[in-house]
Structures are given as C-alpha cells and as structure tokens.
Amino acid sequence: MRNRRAWSATRTVVAGLACGVLALALPGSHASAGAGRPAGAGSGAGQGERDASTVIEWMRTAGATIRAEAHPAPPESLIWDAYVSTAVYNAVVGIEGRYTPYKWDGRAPRTASSAAAAASAAHRVLRHHFPGAAPRLDTALTGTLAEIPDGAAEDEGVAFGKRAADHVIELRRDDGRGASVPFPARPRPGVWRPTPPGHEPFASAWIGRVRPLLLDSPHQFRPGPPPSPRSARYARDLHELAAYGGRTGSHRTPEQTDTARYFAVLDLQGALGDHATRHGFGIAETARLYAAANTAQADAVITAWDAKLHYGTWRPVTAIREADTDGNPATRADRRWEPLLVTPAHPDYLSGHATMGGALMRMLTGVLGTSRVDLYIRSTSTGTSRHYRYAHEYERDVVDARVWGGIHTRTADEVGDATGRRLAAWALRTYFRPVP
C-alpha cells in the first residue's frame, strides 16, 4: 500500500528543530491516555481508537468534497480543511475534554457520543459551504451513525456536533474568502508579472487578505524584505537556480529531480490520519492533530500570500530571462531558460510550500512533544510515498525542492520556512493546549 522505504537524503543538515515551547506528553502514551478525560466519555483505549477512525474518515470525506465542489488550488484547500477540522475538534473536546477548545467554550453532556459529534460537525460545515454535495454528505453521515448505537448518547453527540459546526461557520463569516484583491504594481525589474507558459494573473490573491484562523492579522509575521536585485545574495540565488532549476542542461541529480516533482502536491491529510492510526491515537488526540496541523498551514499560506502581495518579487523564470535589466553585474540573462516545473501564478517571496512546511513541522513537534514526526507522505503528483522520521528532514527537502524545480529562490524558501516556524511557535502558546 505505502512505500515505507525511508528516503535516503543526499545532503546533511546539522541543525534540527527544538521539541517545542510546551512540555507535552506524547498523545496515545500511557502518561497522556487518561489525562483530563471526563467521566463516562468513552470506554477505554480500544473504543477511543475506533472513534478516532470517524475523524479520519470524515477528513477524507472533506477532502473529496472540497476537490469535487470547489476545484481549489492547493493553498485554498488548506483553508477549507481548517474550517472542517476546527469544527470537528471543538465537537470532540467539548465532550472528551483533554484540550482547550478553539475560540469557544461550548460543552456537551459527558454521556454524548464523540464520534457522532465529530461526524455531525464535519457534515454540517461541508453541507453549509457545498450544498450541491448534500446527497453524498447525507449518505455518508447515515453510514457513520449506523455504526453508533441508537439512543441518547448518539442524539446528544449529533446535536452538539451541529452546535460546534455552527460556531465555526459564524466565526468565518465574511472572513475575506474569495474577495477580489488586485495586484497593482507595474512591471519593472524585480517586480512580478505573469509568467510563461500561461501568463495567468495573480492566482488566489485573496488569500493574502483573508482573516487568519490563529494569528491576529495576515501581516503579523511578515518578514523583512527580500534581497535587493543588486545584492550578492540575489546573484547567488539566481546562479543556483540557473544551474539546478532548469528544465534542460541542469546539474540536478536524478534524485534531486524526483524531490522537486514529489513536492508539487502532497496528501498531507492522509499522512496525518495514517500517523494517528499507527500510533493508536484516541479521538481527542486525532481531532487535535488535524486541527493544529491544518490551522497552522492555513495561516502559513495567508502569511506567505501577504508577503507576496506586499513585496511582489518576480519569479526565477523572469529574473533569469531579464537579468540584463536588474542592475547587477554578477547576473547573466538567458532568454531561453525554462524551469523544471511550471511556475505558479504568484510572486516568489515568500514560498508558500516552504512557509507551510515550517509551520506544519513546528506545530507537529509541539503537539507531539518530539521532533520525530514519523510521517508517511504520498505525493499525488508522482504517486510515490516517502517516510519522514524527523521534522528537519521534511523542511530540508521542501526548501530544496522548490529551488530544484526552478520556481523559487532559496531565500524565498528559507525565509518562508523560518517564518512558518515562528508563527506556529506563537500559536502553540495559545491554541490546542492540554487541559490541566
């Protein structure tokens, strides 16, 4: 099913990530298995693991529904995933306890079914945003509830799940999703303009102005400006891209080319569910894993797009082809240069993939209490899977991948990764914390 062969990296990284600002027991461990659980909620680890499968199944249903109904670009999908997973998280911890709810203080009877609440919450959020999918969603909910004993516990869980969903729906009302956001900068050396082959306008620019899920504003963690086109660092970035990021004549190894293609689109939701299953997470730990990972990535995308709108730097394909206009004597124009991957239709700085990668790994190390993330991640672009044992391995590869793909400067990747880690570390001090 999955290729569990560990990826053999070609580069050595000295520094790893810190385990986090919180000293947390590993979810699913003996130390954390019963902490904070209300009396009567669940019936032991086996029941908790069975209930956890409801969260995993409904996050899978969410992904399929979002793809079919919204046809979103990958960054947009993460925002939808965050809506669903926060509603599910609130529905579960409002019954189970264990962790602080997300921007809510709702509580349910201790006897309510957490699995019914999780399914009901996901169903209601998806049905609200995608009414065309109602028949399929209704059928899925009926199937889930058929596996839960009829009675007061199921009814209480369904009712509470609807309340949790309605709260998130109201939280996200008029949050700027899908708004028209122009990119007014006029093309000049260093400034973004539509890129070949499609020469499409700035894609999903609204992401940079949407209200974050965790942060106070889209620009809360906006980094400083990118290197000037006249700087030595800028020239180094361009030289590396010209040498390693081109479609033809590149110095890339076959393994580096595989890495560039692998990171185009990843099934991170599936990786989270697989991790929870293999590690025997209960329903509360599983819901927390999804909600923490998805909100961190959503806010990372928002932060990256804010920087793209603010700084508006041109992409490598433009920078290399027009290097004779940048005022830097150390760069050289190549009018025929093409990147390995098709350049996405938005500016270079920051890299969305790298910002999301830093935020995801920093959030996971805080939630799991260890830098050993143990993720089997499938690439939907290549159909292959890789096993990432440690957070820094994933971050290293996502930074390299965007350079080797010819679509981002190393600076845009490295600053993005650091920015993502900073915002997730900040969020961990407030959200998804264990209840004493």
From TrEMBL:
Q: Does the keyword Signal apply?
A: yes
- Gene3D superfamilies xref list: 1.10.606.20
Q: Write the record's keywords in alphabetical order, separated by commas.
A: Signal
Task: Name the InterPro entries for this protein.
Answer: PAP2/HPO_sf, V-haloperoxidase
The answer to whether UniProt assigns keyword Signal to this entry is: yes
Organism domain of life: Bacteria
Q: Which SUPFAM superfamilies match?
A: Acid phosphatase/Vanadium-dependent haloperoxidase
Q: Which residues form the signal peptide?
A: 1-31
State the name under which the record lists this protein.
PAP2 superfamily protein
Output the lineage of the source organism.
Bacteria, Bacillati, Actinomycetota, Actinomycetes, Kitasatosporales
